[in-house]
Specification:
Elements (H helix, E strand, L loop, with lengths): L5 H17 L6 H8 L4 H13 L4 E2 L7 E2 L14 E13 L4 E2 L1 E2 L4 E7 L7 E7 L13 E5 L9 E6 L2 E10 L2 E5 L15 E11 L4
Length: 211
């Protein structure tokens, strides 16, 4: 196959393996090798090992087809013991990339289990586009449930708004100010000027439709 930068090839490998896993099929090293036309199976192994090191895949020891997508451990586990299904508005799309224009186009409601003690208006849902958060298991087409309640904490995955542009990133608060960090090495950290960015809420749930 033609030579491409390592990062681009690795992203192609990740997308191929991810799509196989979402269909319920964990590909073998040989299958990945045949798909991309790599000369050596060790090339596949090197890409997959790097994807595991980046947190974009998980390898289960002792299994030939032991690769899987990471669990959504990035999200807090709410206490739904006193909750019930309530309608949360789906407001459109949000970018998982650079800042892009937020699309607030109500598309109906999603049933979400929310504690009775919490205000329904504190929740909304957005559909994700872009791949900057793929290392956290957030993929294009996923739907995220966002909670506005409380003060965002460094390390949480949030929806941030800069003027009319919104994005999904991991929040980092340090001495040099706010950073919005991707979970994909092909994307840059965003450093909005002081006072220009508003955190709309933290992501508390992820939903994916398997096609």
């Amino acid at each position: 196959m033609p030579k491409t930068p390592p990062g681009q090839t690795r992203n192609r490998v990740f997308r191929f393996v991810r799509d196989c896993l979402l269909r319920g099929d964990s590909p073998s090293l040989r299958e990945v090798q045949r798909h991309f036309g790599f000369r050596a199976v060790e090339t596949v192994r090197a890409h997959l090992t790097a994807l595991v090191d980046e947190g974009r895949l998980v390898k289960e020891p002792g299994r030939a087809r032991g690769y899987r997508l990471p669990k959504q451990s990035s999200f807090p586990e709410p206490d739904w013991s006193t909750g019930r299904l309530r309608p949360v508005p789906l407001l459109g799309e949000v970018a998982a990339g650079g800042f892009e224009e937020a699309i607030e186009n109500p598309e109906g409601n999603l049933p979400v289990e929310i504690p009775d003690s919490r205000d329904l208006s504190d929740y909304f849902a957005l559909r994700v586009r872009g791949e900057s958060m793929s290392g956290a298991g957030i993929l294009p087409g996923d739907t995220v449930i966002v909670e506005r309640r409380g003060t965002p904490v460094s390390g949480q995955i949030v929806v941030a708004l800069l003027e009319e542009d919104a994005t999904v990133k991991r929040l980092h608060l340090g001495q040099e100010g706010m950073e919005l960090r991707p979970e994909n090495p092909d994307f840059d950290t965003l450093r909005p000027p002081p006072g220009s960015c508003r955190i709309l809420g933290r992501i508390v749930e992820l939903r994916r439709q398997i096609r």
